[in-house]
Structure formats: C-alpha cells, structure tokens
Amino acid sequence: MNPSAQLMGDHAVLVAFGSRYSKLANQAVLRFDREIRRAAIPGIVETVPGICSLLVRFDTEQVHTLEALEKCRTLLEGQTWIREDTAEVGRKLTIPAVYGGRHGPDLATLAKHVGCTQEALVACHSRTWLNVLCLGFSPGTAYLAELPEEYDVPRKETYSNPVPAGSVLVANRQTVFAATEIRTGWWRIATSPTKGFRPELQCPFLFSPGDLVRFEAISEEQLEQVKYSQPRIENAA
Q1: What's the predicted TM-score (pTM) here?
Q2: Which of 51, 76, 101 is the last residue of a domain?
C-alpha cells in the first residue's frame, strides 16, 4: 500500500502507511509525526499516532480544510517514509510485573493452548524488547509489538470481566498494557504495579509512541514494595 492522505470530516486528515501492522509502517508513522510537528504548519492542533496511520487534527479558523489536506500531501510526497533504516526511538523502560496466578489468570490456559510451559512463556515475554506503537482505547493504554511466534494467538471469543489497571494482555503477537480498568478479549498473563495513566501530572501518560519496553518478572511479595512500582527508564542508544 502506498502512503495516502485523506480527509476525515472537516477537521482532520488521516495519513496512512498501511492497512495492518508492520514494523516499517509504524516507523513511518513516527517519522511523519516528527516531521509534521517540525514543519509547524499553522492551524494544526494535534497529531495522533496509530499503529499504521497518523491522524492530523486542525483548526479550520486558521487553515482551510482543503489547504490542510494539500499541505499534508505535499509533505508526504517530499521523501520516502517507508524504508529499512532504523527509525529514531525514545526511551527504554523496564516494567515490573507478576506473571501467572491471580495476577495473570490466563497464563496457564495460554500455555496449554500453545503447547509449552508457563515458565517458557514468561521467559519469552520478559526477554523481548517491545516497541510502543500507539496509545488508545482508554487513557494511557499502550499497544506494544512484536512478540515472538509463541504469542501468535488470536484474542478470546468473549470479553472478560473488567481487568485492573496495570494488566499485561497479549494476543496476535502484541502486548497491551492497560492503564485503566477495562473489559477485554485479550489474554491477561501478568499485572504490574506501574501506573500508565496519572491524570494529576502535567504529562499523564507513562508511554509515548517510539519508546522501547521490556517486562521484568517479580514475585507477588515484591509487588507490594514501593520500589517495584516505578519503571526503570533510560535513554535509548
């Protein structure tokens, strides 16, 4: 699919780099997002990265709808966005989490489904650095990819009861980190004490698209210790 830009109503343009997730498409989203913010086009008030597209919102009192679309298309045609070179990344965050048991009630079922032990699934998940693709569904909730083939499993056929904030959910080789209580059809394999959404802060979201995240297995006893509630954060190389 070639990159495209089209109007979404009168106040937004959707710039798409694919119709489904790929690492190259998601990196193109982040590149275009940085570039459009650097361009400081009058009237653009917000950009919202998705898994393979970017929503560009604008104020029609500052820029005409068709002019905003043309500016996005001109910028889109200015360079090759989908390319093999490594995109810039943000921070590296290590997030503590308790796997299995009451904190990951789907882990045992998932292990049987894929034909391996719970310990093997935990090791596979916790050693993988994941890219933050986008935020969405509920405030601060992050979509992360890509997990190894062991996690190439579909979502459940039914929704669960609400799962708590901090739930670590998996399906389709992706991880979702729930920042608020939500109902879900994803498999809950762990829970973290780390808060992904803190509305009292000026910047309420823990994650940003382009960050790298890895989960670190801790014990249930460690879950109650304050020092395990905070992620380890460093700048990516």
Answers
A1: 0.89
A2: 76
